[in-house]
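Two entries, shown back to back:
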Amino acid sequence: MDTIRFVVPCLLGVEGLIAEELRDMGAEDVSAENGRVLFSGDASTLARANIRCRYAERILVLVGSFEAHSFEDLFQGTKALPWERWIGKTDRFPVKGYSLNSDLFSVSDCQSIIKKAVVERLKTRYQIPWFEESGALYQLQFSIMKNVASLMIDTSGRGLHKRGYRPESNAAPLKETLAAALCRISQLRHYHQLYDPMCGSGTIVIEGALMALNRAPGLTRRFTAESWRQVPREVWQKERDAAKALERHDIDFHGYGSDLDPAAVEVAKANARRAGVEDLVAFTVRDLRDFAPVTPTATVITNPPYGERLLDADAAVALCREMGRRFTPGRGKSYTVITADEEFEKHFGRKADKRRKLYNGMIKCQAYMFFK
């Protein structure tokens, strides 16, 4: 197959991490923008990115982009794109998307016009009057931002953060992709001892173990594009085999998660079993006030309640102060805390050595890092 242009939508703040991992995978023409990364490759790259990407939300084929100030612009621009390269006579092609800061703001109208334009294009190419849409799924996605329409096809299906090990979660779970990003920016290594004293459903500890093993996050799940004729079945098998061959077995990693909630700890244990990392991690019921690493060195990464969702503001402040008391500086120790509290350093009791802006869903956060 010819070169394909891809778009990777992602959480704000992790674009650079995704660009780096895509380059490491052999992707070409990689460029990072706000909330997305673009790259080029072939069918093998498509499969590889879905299987191995640790921080991305999904992998989309970029069919084309154009300016659209009117519905006629949107119709003609969509109709001009080579949809027959992807969509066959019997394939399904539903449409969804969004519009921001653009002249066209009715999402439902945009959906209808894009669908009609694709149908008209395919009618001309296939010389048939209607489409039964009973075959493989080609989910069309559009984004219209500042009057530039981008038309894409989703290759992933379920979001890539859905690794398959977390059918259950606590009240405010951290996305697996964000948990992995926190491990990456904390410079977690395969010989580190990782701690999360407010572990909830265990996502940070489990993602840390998967990273230490260099185990591809999408190795055991399925993707929409596996039913596409453009990506032969043997390509998927080859990429899964290649990903397995990259796993590390010479690691000295161990993860320790603790939480005040016994139910959350049981969920974390079940998630670790499903992820296949139960031998590398341990979860216990423990109050933050009793937190103390059991190893000489410790990489601590945690996502405390912010006040918006789980705790009231006073309780969240008290938690920050307790972290300041428990997270003591020392040789071989580092601490990363992600929070939406803009006065976290004041409550914690000292300035971070480094800060990084990240988004937890729609909540603007900072990852505060202490390592000196």
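entry 2 starts here
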Amino acid sequence: MSSGKIVCQGALCECKYGDFPDTLKIVSKHKEYVNESDGSDKMIATHLDVGQPFEKKTFGQCKLQPTPGGYKPCQVQLTQWQDFYEKVALSNGGKVLTEESKATCPIAGAPCITISFHGQTASPTSKQKEQADEETHAMLNPFASLSAPQQDKVEHLISAE
């Protein structure tokens, strides 16, 4: 059973036989998103995201394909994902990928592609700003205010010196 954070659009993946990572680009069609209020950027990745679900569609040079002058370029072609979360199925029947999921490439014949960053980022909403406690926020970040303009506070600090 997989654990860890849910993987979404923008996740960073690496191949252990490649030179550099590539960004996951969701290809499966469904309506489920994670960690955002609009439901437009962070679509959840599923085990159905196979083929070439990456922005650059390469991990650089493939160490499994040597040539006299170096290595052949990687041409990503995922055949399957493993270690996905099987207890949840999305609207398209896809199972959710987690940080623990791994993908198989036909060249390697074994799971060689891992997820190095899940893709989720915090995106505070205006509603969260309204619900924030001004006093707590001032203690955590004394140079920023949730409501009042900063000019008065800066002038007060300068004149106090």
